[in-house]
Design goal:
Oligomer: single chain
Order of helices and strands: HHEHEHEEHEHHH
CATH topology: Rossmann fold
CATH architecture: 3-Layer(aba) Sandwich
Strand order of the largest sheet: 3-2-1-4-5
Number of strands: 5
Radius of gyration: 16 Å
Helix content: 40-55%
Shape: globular
Number of helices: 8
Strand content: 15-25%
Bound molecules: S-adenosylmethionine
Number of domains: 1
């Protein structure tokens, strides 16, 4: 990690831990609006039995648990101890599920160890430089024939409901949200030289 990225990561960590200490108690109430996406991510992934999944910026674990319920071996990584405390409470007997508190821009895993790496609603909650580093890590630790699944906001369409949703999100979301929407997910994919399957 370069000196600059190291400093950005250090500052982000302090901010993120404080921000999600406040958000953790209410996060799952709002997360309910994304619940329909979790199962779709699992089914669209088309993983084979025994596949290994890495869930970056896993938060309170909704996406990790959706994979674990289907029998996959899952590691969830997050920077917020408060979000992870809630994630760990969702683990049930028989799930092959591990959560670790770690910056996703530098993870302690060997190259090509996972069949799939995913990040949901995480990129808009970190500085762009960190987001790029996270995508690189996802690519590094995923098998050459594996998959990356990225779920996040899109630029709002031109409708009253979208504009209202965007206005509410600006109040609720972290300070990186507006920048993320401005540059767009496509920019992240292009910079990380990832091709999109949508
Ligand atoms: C909006 S939550 C999304 C949580 C979860 N993925 C979901 O879909 O509900 C964003 C999460 O990103 C985590 N996060 C932000 N920056 C991170 C980083 N550099 N490394 C790991 N986690 C990070 C936060 O702690 C938070 O839990």
């Amino acid at each position: 990690m370069s000196q600059d990225l190291h400093e950005i990561a250090r500052k982000h960590k302090g901010h993120n831990v404080r921000w999600f200490r406040r958000m953790a108690p209410v996060y799952d109430v709002v997360e309910v609006f994304a619940r329909h996406i979790r199962e779709k991510v699992v089914s669209d992934s088309g993983l084979s039995h025994g596949a290994k999944v890495l869930d970056m910026a896993c938060g309170t674990g909704a996406q990790s648990i959706a994979f674990a319920k289907h029998g996959f071996s899952v590691v969830g990584v997050d920077l917020s101890p408060d979000m992870l405390t809630r994630a760990k409470k969702k683990v049930r007997r028989g799930y092959d599920m591990t959560f670790i508190c770690q910056d996703a821009s530098s993870v302690p895993f060997a190259d090509s160890g996972f069949d799939l790496a995913t990040i949901s609603f995480g990129l808009h909650d970190m500085p762009e430089e960190i987001g790029m580093a996270v995508l690189m890590e996802m690519r590094r630790v995923t098998k050459p024939d594996g998959k990356l699944v990225i779920v996040d906001y899109d630029v709002p369409r031109n409708s009253f409901a979208a504009a209202l949703g965007h206005a509410i999100a600006k109040i609720w979301e972290s300070k990186y949200y507006v920048h993320f929407l401005k540059v767009g997910l496509r920019h992240y994919l292009d910079e990380a030289q990832l091709s999109a399957g949508e």
